[in-house]
Design a protein that fits this description.
Length: about 280
C-alpha cells in the first residue's frame, strides 16, 4: 500500500521531529495536539529545526516552505481525517493513554490504515489489542528525529508481513534505516542502553569512581560521544528508571534490577537536565 496521508498524534519532542521528517519527504501530515498552545509550540520547534538544517546546508529555504506547507495542525483526535492511511502515535509514555487513543481512532479511521506507536518500552502486542492487531506496529524513532538514522521497526505478535513491508518502505523513503525487531521488553536499543546506564549508576553508588570519571572512562576508553551519566541526565532519570522497571518486570531477571541510587534520585526529584539537576547541575 502506497501511503500519502499520515497523522502524528502528539507534538512534543518526538512527535515534532516525526512530523518534520515525513513532511520534508512530501507526505501530507496532520499534527494532532490537545491545545492550541501545544500546536504553536510544536510548529515553532519544527521551524527552528528546519532553520538548523538550512544552516547546515542540508535543505534549501524553498524546501523549508514546502515542508511547512505539508503540515496541517489540528486540535483533538476528532479532527484527524477519516481517510488517513498511517497513524503514528507519539504521546506521553502511558499505556492507558495510548490504548484509549488507539481505541478511539480504531472506531473512526479508515479500516485499512496502519497504526504505529513510537513507544520506547510498552509492548506493541498489548497496544495492538486496541482493535487492529495485524495492522499495528512499532516505529521507534530516535531523538533528535531529523538527525538520527535508525528507526527500530517492532513487530507485535500479530503484525502482518504486509504491514511490516509497508512501514519498512516508508522508512526508506524518509531516508532512515529500518531495523526489524521482535516485540520483547526494551526492544533492542533500550535493552542494551538502559542496563549500561544502570550499571554506571551502580558503579557510582559503590564508590568505584566519580561521576566525571565514569563518564570519562566511557568517552575516552570506549569512544562513546558522551558518558552514560550525562546521557541519563539528558534522557531523564525518571524515564531511565521506568524502562529499567519494564525490563525487570518483563523478564523477571535480577540483572535488570534498577540501581537503588537511581530510584533515590528520582524520588528526590533529581531527574536530570529537565529538572535542573541529575548527576550534574544545569542552569
Ligand atoms: N524523548 C525521547 O528521547 C524518546 C525517544 C524515543 C521514543 N520516545 C517515546 O516517544 C513518545 C513521546 O515522547 P516525547 O519525549 O515526545 O514526549 P513529550 O512529553 O515531549 O510529548 C508528548 C506530547 O503528547 C501530547 N499529548 C498527550 N496526550 C495527547 C492527546 N490525547 N492528543 C494529542 N496529543 C497528546 C502532549 O501534549 C505532548 O506535547 C513516548 O512514548 C516516549 O517513550 C521518546
Amino acid at each position: 500500500m502506497a501511503i500519502k496521508n499520515i497523522a502524528v498524534i502528539g507534538g512534543g519532542t518526538m512527535g515534532s521531529g516525526i512530523v518534520t521528517v515525513f513532511a520534508m519527504y512530501g507526505f501530507q501530515v496532520t499534527l494532532a495536539e490537545m491545545k492550541t498552545e501545544f500546536v504553536q509550540r510544536a510548529l515553532f520547534g519544527i521551524e527552528k529545526s528546519l532553520d538548523k538544517l538550512i544552516q547546515k546546508e542540508k535543505i534549501t529555504p524553498l524546501r523549508k516552505e514546502e515542508t511547512l506547507n505539508n503540515i496541517v495542525p489540528v486540535i483533538g483526535l476528532t479532527s484527524i481525517p477519516v481517510e488517513t492511511e498511517l497513524i503514528v502515535e507519539a504521546v506521553n509514555e502511558n499505556r492507558e493513554l495510548k490504548l484509549s487513543i488507539f481505541k478511539e481512532l480504531n472506531g473512526r479511521i479508515n479500516p485499512k490504515a496502519i497504526f504505529a506507536s513510537n513507544t520506547s518500552s510498552i509492548s506493541i502486542t498489548e497496544l495492538a489489542q486496541s482493535g487492529r492487531p495485524d495492522k499495528f506496529i512499532g516505529m521507534h524513532f530516535m531523538n533528535p528525529v531529523p538527525v538520527m538514522q535508525l528507526v527500530e521497526i517492532i513487530k507485535g505478535y500479530q503484525t502482518s508481513q504486509e504491514t511490516y513491508n509497508t512501514i519498512k518502505e516508508m522508512t526508506i523513503k524518509i531516508e532512515k534505516t529500518p531495523i526489524e525487531v521482535n516485540d520483547y521488553p526494551g526492544f533492542i536499543s533500550n535493552r542494551v542502553l538502559m542496563p549500561f546506564i544502570n550499571e554506571a549508576v551502580f558503579a557510582l553508588m559503590e564508590g568505584v569512581s566519580t561521576v566525571e570519571d565514569i563518564d570519562n572512562v566511557v568517552k575516552l576508553g570506549l569512544n562513546h560521544p558522551m558518558g552514560p551519566l550525562t546521557l541519563a541526565d539528558f534522557i531523564g532519570l525518571d524515564v531511565c528508571l521506568n524502562i529499567m522497571e519494564v525490563l525487570y518486570n518483563g523478564f523477571q531477571d535480577s540483572k535488570y534490577r534498577p540501581s537503588p541510587l537511581l530510584k533515590k534520585m528520582v524520588a528526590a526529584g533529581k531527574l536530570g537536565k529537565k529538572s535542573g539537576e541529575g548527576f550534574y547541575k544545569y542552569n
